[in-house]
Amino acid sequence: MPQTFLIAGLGNPGRQYEHTRHNAGFMALDVFAEGFSPMWNKWQGDKGLYAKTELSGNTVYLLKPMTFMNLSGYAVRSFSSFYKIPPKNILVIFDDMSLSLGSVRLRAGGRAGGQNGMRNIIEQLGTQDIPRLRIGIGPRPAVFEGKDFVLSKFSSQESPLLKEALIKADAAVHDFIVNGIDAAMTKANAK
Q1: Distance, CA of 191 to CA of 187 (rounded, Å)
Q2: Is residue 185 within 8 Å of 57, Cβ to Cβ?
Q3: What are phi and psi of 176, to 5 degrees?
Q4: CA 117 to CA 115: how far, in whole Å?
Q5: Which residues contact 159 (CB under 8 A, 6 or more apart)?
Q6: Is the Cβ–Cβ distance between 32 and 111 less than 8 Å?
């Protein structure tokens, strides 16, 4: 039976944040969107950018919250509430400096793990049972503070590993929508 899904890629709006580690969620959403060429629209003024597409008979909404990372939950909550999308059909994509660059991890739920955007989404939706796809951007060098590291840009040497992670993320999003979270986790988290 066809379902409606929301894929939310997290990041920060503005040119100064493009291609930074903290925008890996935006980048992954862009890679997924390339296969559909959707039309992006504004969501509730400046709360976000969204697009609508279809995959295997399912309606799929793509959302980039424009509220800055730490307030991502406001856009996700208002969007999912308006379109009546349950948390189990929401996939949040974000960066994780505890994972090495090039790796991805898919989970069906759990705590925010220090990721403020995911923490705000959990608070706004009132549940930890929200699927999430973490994209590795680490490890963080000791010379960097966490905030400075996530706002740094990827180097040219890191680009191949970033591309590899974005390809894995794209496959995980497809699997999540078509085959469900359990099958998608088995495949995405395989070593």
Answers
A1: 9
A2: no
A3: -60, -45
A4: 6
A5: none
A6: no
Contact 170, 25 (CB under 8 A): no
Global pTM reads 0.97
Q: pLDDT per residue over 4-36, tens digit each?
A: 999 999 999 999 999 999 999 999 999 999 988
Whole-number CA gyration radius for the chain:
15
CB 175 within 8 A of CB 141: no
CA-based torsion, 49, 12, 177, 108: positive or negative: negative
Q: How many residues does the chain have?
A: 191
- Residues with a catalytic annotation lie at 22
- The strand pairing partners of 51, in sequence order, are 62
Distance CA 12, CA 25 (A): 10
| The two three-digit tokens of residue 142, written as one number | 């000791």
Task: Find the CATH number of the domain harbouring 13.
Answer: 3.40.50.1470
Over residues 152-169, the pLDDT tens digits come to 999 999 999 999 999 999
Q: How many domains does the chain have?
A: 1
Count of Cβ atoms closer than 10 Å to residue 86 Cβ: 15
Domain span at residue 51 reads: 4-188
Q: Locate 92 and state its tokens.
A: 């949040």
